[in-house]
Records
---
Amino acid sequence: MSYEIRIEHNPFTIETHFFARPSQDAEWQTPAVNSSLMQYANKRLQLWIENFFEEVDRNEFNGYGSFNVIFKGVKADYSDVKIAAEKAKEKGIEVNVKWEPATEVSERLEQIKGLMQEAKQHPIFKEKIEQSKEIQANFEAAFNRDFDVYVAATMSAGKSTFINAMLGCELLPNANQATTATIAQITDNDQMPHKEFIGERYNKDGELVEPQQQITLATLQEWNKLEDTKLIKLEGNIVGITEREDVRLVISDTPGPNNSQDRSHWETTQAYIQDSLRNPLILYVLNAQQLGINDDKSVLLMIADIMKKGGKQSKDRFIFVLNKMDAIDIEKETTVEEILEDACNTLRNYGIDDPLVYPVSALNAGLFRRRKENDNLSIKERNLLSGWENICSPEGDYPGIDFVEHMPLSSSAKQILASREVAPAEYRTGIPAIEAMIDEYIDKYNLPNRVNRAYDALKTAIKISSDEQALVTSLKLNKDELARVKEILGNLRNSEQLKADAKAKIDGLLVDSSSHSSSSSYSSANGSNILYSKEIISQIRDKEADIRTMMAKFGRDFTGEATVEEAKCRVASLEEDVRNKAMELLSYFPTLVEEAQEKAKSKLKQIFDDFNNSLFNGEDFSKLPLPVLESLKQTMSNLELSVGDDDTVSTRDVIGKVKYFSTFKFWTWGDDIYGDEYFVVDLNKFYKTKDDIIYQHLNGIVENAYNKIEEDTKTYLGQFKTFIDEEYTAAMNKITEELQVKMENEEKLDQQIKDAEQKLDQINKFKEKLEQVISL
């Protein structure tokens, strides 16, 4: 017996079809609805593939321990399937994978962009696209070829050196402290000569203060010193990346979160890392010489939380770059493996499980590329590069140093790297491998996501247009039926009874939802608690419990007596603990509240659909012919429910409005805590002077999160009721009026029905073209 499973994964429609059979001679069978396989049918492959084969062996094949897999899909997804199979083999499960290639992403993107252009000019779809914010947003995302890579780092990790290595020149200022509160955004343009960059400067209000001009290192140093500088936009040739026709790389040099001079450092980095809309690639640069320091604790805790929630894509999205490997004497001090294990252990201590760490020497990669471009290197730089070429090159029994050998590269990243012409000394720095991984991420996530957004937009335009024409063709009735439809629609138009029925149904649905929504004890009198997510409120409660536990620990730690110097050390440690907890909360809650917002909007959309279905099943519409009833219901369901779209206040601003936790000064904690004779401090008395202030500060952040959720849900509920009372009713009146006008003249109606049938035929032909582009 040889079990087999077939997986057909479409990354554009986010659909997976599974088939299984006990042997190659047997017929393929579709899994039962309750099969464990079906839970993955509508999820991106990277969210479930990691441990998939162990689950299949256990749940589907009774622990047989050996089976074949036929995978049909694109190359990037096949690479992840192979990695998962290798992981299963390490656990004693023999998984043999065969690949059936599907048309690759870049080709589909070009085809679907052509369909988008056609739709925007098509007389049937043009108006629908222009009127829909949702369609326009998806179109914009699909056409936007900018791909974001955010570079963050711990202090002195060599972030600027790393970016300069990718640029192949010295553009960004190097500094050993986090002095920059600005964002340097570098857009790739391969048409520009090497080392030539143009740029412009924006102040903290988002205003352009320095128009586009030629940029040098000196220009950036000057702009960086100006206190009002917030963003510097640059454009030039990023030599390490080949610009594609459909993708343009944008590297953002994010400010260091560890600079106490400017809280915006942390907030900016936090916003980039938590950007769940675009899921940008994050290159987090660590210093191989300073592993285990706490200056990046808050960032790494936040990354750990994101990685736990997002499956394999979240793991792929965060690349930990271990820089300055060349500064360590690999022959005498340690080995590359030991340094990598230390780095992995450091990351695991912050909750980052199975981190992927990539050792590099950005300095030598940059020096090599500058020399290749005939840059004038200093004597020290030439000596450094010469030294690297000596130690990285094999000689006799000495294997040399090759950081790429120690990288957990996928097979596709290795293929991309192998396809490039790179000198051995440059290759072994590891920087070209990081650039190959960027290309791999683009193929795996960015391009399929853009195809998916375009597909969703075109599907929506097709549905709206199709329902509109189907409503007209539904009037293909006999005279008696038309008369009945005309009478019913006439009675419904501007009907106060219909408005009353609609209001009653909405109120009933809201009450029913509320009765099934025991989300938490946290609720409001106006019923907006129906939109609260039980899981999210539970997570906030957990953070409250964490604060209480931490405060109890502080109380236990501050007992007995201590010398003044000992007390100062205790206070310094307490300050650091409180500050880290505050930073953790300030990073955690904005994303949680934004998740609550999306869940609330989704819940309201569900309530709207239930309302629309319920209304058309009511007595007012019961006498309508079924085709007219169904078409009218579908047309009304296409109304775009927009709640929360006019939010002007940043969630992060609201959550973070608690006064920022400043450093405590030992001598400001009360003059009566010292023992006069021996300079002894009563620690319990000492702590009690500030424990309430600490608690209020930390709990204030939690309360802001609660308040923001309550404020949002009340606002959304109000907007929803206004939408039903005004927009929905107005749309119903408009449609019924248009239908009545069409039915006034029987001859004209016959022609309009024929026109609608022709338009439906055109819509279906366009839909077929779309499905051909998107299908496996």
Note: Residues 307 and 314 are 5 Å apart (CA to CA).
---
Amino acid sequence: MKISSLAAMLATSVCVVAMATPVQAQTRSYDIAAGGLKPALDAYGRQSGRQVLYRTDDVREARSDGVCGTLDADTALARLLRGTGFTFRVDASGAIAITPGEGEAGSAAADSESADIIVTGTRIRGVDVPAPAITMGREQIRNSGYASVADIFDDLPQNSREMSADASIGTGVSDLALSNAQGAAGISLRGLGAESTLVLLNGHRRAGNVDGRVVDISAIPLAIVDRVEIVTGGRSAIYGSDAVAGVVNLVTRQDFEGMESEFYLGSAAKGGERIGISHTGGFKSDHGGLVLAYDFRRERNFDIVRAELGGPSPFDVSLRRFDARPDSQRHSLYAAGHYRIADAVELYGDALYTTDLKRAVLDYTSPFFDFIQDSRVRSRQYSAVLGAKVDLGGGWRLDVSGNHGAVRNHEDVEDSFGGRNRRTSARLTEASAVVDGALFAIGAHEVKAAFGAEYRNEALTNPTLKADRNIVSAFGELIVPFDIGGGEVEFSLAGRYDRYSDFGSTFNPQAGLVWKPAEGLAIRGAYSRAFRAPPLLTLSQSNQAFLQYAPDPKTGGVKPVLIWLGGNAALRPERATTWSAGFDYSPPSASWLTVSASYFSIDYRHRIDQPIEDTSSVLLDEAFFGSLVNRMPADSDARKVIESALSGDLGASGFINMTDIDFDPATQNLLDVAPGLVLFDNRRANIGSDKVDGVDAKVDLRFGSATDKFAVGADGTYYLNSKRRITPLSPLVDRLNTPGQLVDFRLRGSASWTHGAFALFGYLNYVDDYRDSFASPERRIGSLTTVDLTARIDGDQFGNPGPLRGVSVTFSIDNLFDKKPPLFASSDFGLGYDPANASPLGRYFALQVTKRW
């Protein structure tokens, strides 16, 4: 794919637009024509003289019927938002915040003290972030026909889908993906791994699955999600560890009035049927509100062999059954509420409990043995947040909260070698306090700041370890807006200090700039340093030692090599430097057009990795490993390795002698019986590095008449480089366009038509062709283009809806033309496609019926 293809795509924008100086609401004449909601809000800001805050991605596809007449400001805005799916809130200064929400717009206007507009990526209310950002509202999610949170990220060009159930036997994927026996679904922005993307629920952390390392988004029902906010690039100065590739915040439904029931049914031709039922109820009052929801999902397995998606294997492995989607059943309970106990104090909280049972079968033959594995994983995941927002006066607010969550798994596995019964528990407890407000004014602008502190405890228990740690953090953020040359500039600066009880401390700064030289144009740039803390599992897991022979090019024969494996208490944080630059443009003379583009760069160092998987080649590649290879070890060196292996939870099985050397660790020194011994430290270490850069781009066009509304758009990512260095001395390896890794170009196009109660949405998904680097000679893996369709009927839009009042029916077809994923003929397990870059499901039909009571 040539770079010129970039002209066809443009990246998402997140804008906070300030229109005019705040004034008190008053009666005046309004004349705002029907059309796009964004230009309508801009016109309202000019005509009312009020400050209007909104996010471009939220309102991009919405349209307003306009407003005309002599009205007070609140009534005019309520009419402007009627039927758009948005509401508004007013803060003490009179500023207006436009937010997604059900019910008649303007119902929240009386709640003049509760403007809570904090976008993901900052701790300060009412400001923008200079980094590339994406927002998907509830209507946009429904229009796409998605059935789960994971479906959203499967289609996202900025994400890799390697953290999925079928990638657990993938080739070229990360060790984390291969160890995903729990069938968890994770998010891997920029393809840097699910551990390097921070996933939040309502701005708070959740405990991780897969031994505490990955937030499992399959445990979060789509029915409770109000919107998805994504900020790419390092955000450790705001949130701490894991925010290297970006931050994803899943914002749930907080304000809901009435009841809503939903039924979902989906099926592919060869398995993977889904059925879902959910019910949500809530009420609102002048003092607060409460939302309760229950969600049930049942999914049948999707067998790769039945779908005829098996392929050749270089090891002659032949699949007889592999469940790319496990058979699963999930129940979820959700509650959220807020209540103002005094004029200056509002309590809030939310809780989510999910229990699911997954069953998956792997069955294959090989020249060495036949293998069958039947695994059942019962998982209980929960999180609960309780907090208070306190108005301190003078525009300052204190937000204090506590958060506790856990993931408890019971794995029952039967296989050809006997199987296992394993219980794991990952827990997280957190307390935080953040205060934000305006420091002083520079002309018409306010300099704002946020300061805060956090305490967090993380714990992990599995059959071989029990570990925990404490983290204490302090952070600050500053926003300085000013005018220059007729334009407006907003400069941001942030820093965060984190101290871990198990490895030490780290400080990470960030800086950003947003310049608006003309109406409708924003130019932005961001720089940050980010980090990822070593996982508890890797710091604390037991060691192993293997004694084996390895070819030695220096002697022409073989040498005894003592291989040291397992955890490493000396690990340090992974560190990254990220920066981005881009623009958002929506010309006033062409309000139907929005264009955005961003360049991003991530330099990720000290990555925790195992130096080599095939230890038989360690001496052949000795130049890459430096001091990890010790050709002249002392007796004490060898004894230390063997004792660490024998003293761990594995006991005597921690040391395995794979040679013909007669050695008793209890009575002999290894060097006495193995002269010329080489010691190789193959434990996890901070040895790797990644470099990723590319361009995000997005374009949206909206047009129509009083009866018909049209929208066309494209969102894509073009990666320029994705390179990996396994050790500091090894060569830089180009991983771009290889199986299990990023493909240089991904695009998602969209087109929609709305006519009253009827709406039709079409989507085109494109993944570029790439090379099979595991084949000799290399061959190409073909590109993949699929088309999705969604049709909706909204009963409330009929003049006389009758029995269709409150009813919405959505019918969707994913992969309309039933395109098979391109053949990958070098999979170790004979999986005939690359699960990191393609879905196996084929054509998928789904029906969703929603009823508002």
Note: Residues 1-25, 102-116 have pLDDT under 50 and may be disordered.
---
Amino acid sequence: MAKRQHQPAPLPDNLIKDSDNKILYAYKINKEEGGFEQVLKKISTTAAASLGEEASKKFTLKDAKVLIWGDAKLEKIATSSEEYDEIKGRFEQKYGLLISPNDNFKGSDDDRRPVYRVVGGDGLIIIISQESRGQILVQRAMVAAGTLAERNFESQARQFFEADRTAPSDDLSKWSEIAFMVRRLALNTTPDKANRIVDEIFRSAPIKKYHSHAWAVLPTSVINHLKMGTYRAVDVFGEKTEFPEIRDQIMRQLKLEPGDNFSEFLLYSLGRFREALEAHPGSPIHSVLAYSLGHSMLRGVLTNTYKRLSKSDDDEIFSIYSSNYSYLAEVTYNINIENEDSYYPEDKHPYKEPTIEEKYKTLATRSFFDGYYNYALTIPDSQNEYRDGGLSLSQCVNYFNQFPERYDSKPLCRNDPSFISHTNDILKHFKEVLKDQKSPHFDDASYLLGWLEYHRGNIGTALESFEPAIKFMKDIPSEELENYDHNDYSLPAIHQVARILGTLSPEDAFSRVQKSKVLSGEPDVWNSVLTSFYHAHQYRTVMDGAKRALDTFGIKIESLPVTTDPKRIEAILKKFHLEMTSLGDVIYLYHSSREIGQIEDMLKNPGDRSPSAISAKVKEIVVKYALTDESDFEKKSSRQGPTPKHKDLRQSIYIARRSLDLLPKTPDYSKLRQWLYYKQIRLLAQFDPIKVAAANLEFGKEFPSSPLLDDVLAEQIFAESVIVGDMAKAVTTFDALRRDHPRGNAIDNAYSWMAIGWTCAGQPAKARQIDKEIIRLFLFTRHARYARERIQNPSACEALYELFKWELEAMNWRQRNRIDIIQSTLKANDSSSAEKLR
């Protein structure tokens, strides 16, 4: 038989050999003419003939086909990973040999297309891809991946030993460098082989302190997070982990060498934090271990407390979206699935605009609270999402912060005396973290210590414990503050300090602030404390406290212009180089309190002024603090002169209420009182909607023939349907309005609120029925125009700003007050309500 004639192989573009002239890596790239399938068939047939066998693996990538012979593998580098952003080309000493399907690493970086690391053993890899100009790009790589990885590790280790040669023997700060090198070697080969090579290297190395077999099985995501000094719950491989093979490797290594020099790293990754902390007191990750132990212990205590104190529907507050992304994807995923193209699902499932029927179906089945959360009192999640089905620590703390009524608004120890004994050990672990001011969890530990001390009944210690987190933020340069990653607990600490001080007498609260160098020097603390008293309408207290606050910063309130205008206040603070601080709010609180106090004094002595003068002044102040809708915003921006307006609904409601309480019920004040009732009800509909019905009854009793009664009933419908979501009550009020005021001025508004209420309640069919009535009854009005738009596009709330802007406010209000009666009322009243609507 004649010998088969082969064409001479093209010379490689890159060639790497070892000292024995053995080829470790040969790479060739060229372009072929012809159709993609034609070139693919030719290349694969030629390679198979040359090697005597078909490719052992075949995959499909984006615009590319991959053929592999031998034991080589491709490992995807996640585009979201840190190493992806560090890639510059085909050879990276830190990350190894890399391949891009289109051989354009810069292009891959621009459009975030995947890059692959070559791992495994010896093999041939051929990648055939389609170029934009119709040419076919062919990449051939013959690799001894394992041997290359070994040589690369040896080179990196020598450089590492040389760089660390002069470091003290107890300096373990460079642990992450050697850990990453060994782990990378283990992934390119096997953990056992990596450890044999590590033993050989360290046998002759001048430095032994980093010698460990733990590095080979420690995931790179864990290494990266511990290198930054951060605890992540996703780095714990518990019994229910989605990566059991990694857990098994770690447990096997611990069983083989429980006394390894760095065994605490493996114990940490299994969630055995106490053992890890006690294993090596001088560990380079001591602060992380202390924080993780305190964190997990507190989570357990608060989870049990939550179960005991929460109500049956409180779990709904935790329906927050959490990502399923795993940081471990970057180190555990090898391409070994036939025709893999899941990286680009958009190509297989292009976007399709849903039909109106599909939108209605979505609206009818949605959860009203999904995707919404009240962040006013929240602490950061700190990457503590667990995968055991339980609550995270952040969720528990936020729950107790947001719903203090569950435990009578007192420290938890008053409700549960055992809380103190259960948290004794936790305190010392967080205090240990505070010894390390460079720890990213420094402010976290400060906050949690303060939070714990308060709930253990130690107010003074709690305030002192919050101070490091607050001072931590102050020590960061202002130009770096916004981008600083580790000051996320500073503002929550200020908020908690204000809440605690708000429970004390004014003199005690202000005295504690003034005696603390940290608290007294923080405008946000003063502002938060003063705001709590302002909300309680303690205006004299606010004025006294504001004077003390401004004195601290060298500002005399008597020397400032009398104004609540933010622009004028900001101009004043610029002279003191204190602009962009909360002192502007402090000045506002002082002058606002002074103004409201003057109104109260006037109302207590109505005989000193004429009814017309009192009426004009009361209206002026109520309107000033009642910036409620777009027309008010326009008036604010276009109004000439120095009279500003503010959205301060609580104070506007208070002024209206006090006026009604103090003004005589005489004909001279009849028109003003009717206007005050209307204004109060309109503001309550947004701020405190539960009180609207009672306010309407009071209004109706005093003025049974007022022309404004239909308007306030429309406001009640808005409150009940849109804000509270009680459609059963809204239907009753709506029927009363149509019965008693069929030609009322606000009847069209009421119809629109009912349509929006049914939409927000997940009942688009009922909403559509109301919208049809609106078109029939109010054909040439804006209400009919909006109704037609809702029928055509029921979910386009953002396009109907005037009507739908209330939805977000409604969600925020319900979260704040935990009023969620939509589903229960609809189930109980669905048939009767539907009958009434017909």
Note: Residues 183 and 216 are 5 Å apart (CA to CA).
---
Amino acid sequence: MLNWLKIQNYMKAAFQSIKKSSLSSFLVVLGLAISLLASSLILSYGYQHLTFEEDLANSESIFRATLDLPEVDLGGDGIALTPAGVKDFLKGQLDSSTQVTQFISTKNFFPIMYKGLKREEFNPVAVDESFFEVFDFETLDISEKFSNENGIIISKTLASKVFSGDPVGQVISFNGTEPLEIVGVFDDLPQKTHLNFNAILPLKAVESVSPRLLSGMRGGNFYTYIRSNKKLNDFTTVEDNLSDVLTDSMRVKVDASLMPIEEIHLTQNYLGEMKPAADVKVLYLILTLGGALAVIGGVNFYNLFSARLAMRNTEFGVRIIQGASKIDIFIQAQVEYLILLFTSLMLALSLLELTFERYLSEIIDIAISNSLVMSVMLYLFVALVIALSLLLFVHVLRLNTVKSVIGGSKNVAGNKLGSKKILVAIQTALSIVVLYLGVNVTNQVSELSQVERGFDDSDVWISPQVIDSSFEERFAQFEARASQLDGVKTVTYGEQFPSMSFNDATSELTISNIKDVELSLIPVVGVYYDYLEALDTELLAGRTFSREFESDFSEFSDDREHFGIVVTKTFVEQVGWTDYNSALGSEIRWDDKVAKVVGIIDDVRFTDLQQESSPIFFALGHKAQQRWNIAVEFSDTSNAVQLNEVSQIFDSQFGHQASQFDLLSNLVRDKNSSLFAQLTILLNFAAIVITLCLLGVFALAKFGTDQRQRELVIRKVLGASQFRLQLMLQWQFLMPAIISSIVAATALILTQEIWSDSLNISMSVSGYSLVMSVVIVLLLSSLTVAFVGYRSIATDIVTPLQSD
């Protein structure tokens, strides 16, 4: 029977064993701690992405209408926004039990003002009367004031940020003229949802300001949702009918669909999303890596620990002869094993506490709490305890008493090198694959950072968005004042800058001197003088906009026949002009406008760095949505004083408060932040995989050299040199690594297209990179074996013979 005295003896023996093999114990604990921490973080990261929308009430029965234009290169999988008329069409197609709602994000259209200042903190949506029937806000008390155009409700976080006390009853200004009373406060939206707003106002408020936005089957400003208990397949006829209507209205092929909102975050990359979506292929690869880390950590722990037990087989055999049962042996080994496991867990939790907030949270693009990571870590820990306990129990059951006493660690079941070599060979192959993928991912990140964008984003600072009916007058005053500041080189504005979604796209273009050429949905960027110069775009032919040519300006009231535009190289190629000279001076018509090409610039990548450049043209003074961003370019590296002066002038001219100008390069980086974060996570944890695989090599080498300790000493006595002994050990342990390297290299060559599709990278197996990956892994493995071998070979010749 087990008693407390036995437990004390077992613990005493365990601590003595740990102290005796301090290096091995340290590596056991460190390896498993790193594995637990890394795999817990990865699995928590994946869990957060995979459970998007689960905190949103009734998410399983909510669908969103989306559009795709298969004949147009949108730079994405489709469009998340629909025309206003889609709601009424769907209501006519669906039964009365299905609720349909629409809302529009108003931040980019109508400013919110409080106490005479524009408040950028507000991110409101204007909703129709069905909104609260589709989306549940259980804590919200809707009053009658919200049913007309005079009320607005805000989130708890927004309320605490803007208002010092109870915000209910406070009056804000919508679009600078329409008063809105705050009539309620709602709980913040779940962090894991594609929805992104912090204030809700009635759609009637928008209708009173801009009724044109609320009708028609062209354009796209509205998010349209339905709530139904039907299955997705039940909407096929409705989707086909909507596609036909939109195709006729927009004069371009349109495929409409209803998508479950639970699929939005992981399955598609739509333009106009309120939040960036995750790359599901990279995410699944990261999750696979997380699972592999947990398995590798557990295998390495068992290998190292079983190597320690193998050296005690004689002791265990003698104890069994003296009357101890195998259960006693198992409990004794289990005590030592649990001490090491709990020490690893404590170290992993300590590393999490020390590094998460300071370092790890910076490379993770989604909020993850320490409690979630700890919960995942505990689940992994329990799983490891159960799995490794079973393996340990099997190891003890297979212990042969006679062989243990006579042969020590040799010829005992479970102490053969074969199975352990196979495991290390697998880990070596995995290390090579991961290292090579890491090289490609590094190149991908580097290429994305240095991709030819067609503009220079250094020292160009972008203002918050401005929505102002007197913008031109206010900008002229801002330009006059800001231009006088020391170091300011250029002051200009545009309807959008790189990293921003396009405000406007032409419905149809016709080219005057080329027959049968019609283009649809070509983005139009409204700009001011010096816009193209501030971005340092490359002029290929003609000229950019100049004050010397008044006819360039797109807004005019006289009888001029046309105005000037600047087009990109891809625009020229898509039209089919044979050279730049044939494009210059050509007339382009869309709707009731006529433009003449005055200049051609190199392509500019406005949105996704992974997408090829799309055709764009720039129109001087073009006004699509009456919203602008101001750009200030400095001649040299700007400093905080200069930026503060510019911000103060901006605030005084446009009624903002403590505005912050953003560096254009930061906006471009943030646009692609989700992709960069996932690739960075993959790269960081690839290094951890390699580290853990090297620990596996260490375990094998330690186990093997300990078994051959007597042989090594005898060979040393007979005159074998340390170099020859090292070669003998290297051959034994590196042979499986070399074989696995050949297998890994072959697998990479055969599967390069699969990896390329999975990671969305252009991956062509480079002989140099592949050879270097193999060499680096084999070199690290060789150094690990050499370190273990040196310790064994350097042992004095008396001790091993005495112990044997």
Note: The radius of gyration is 34 Å.
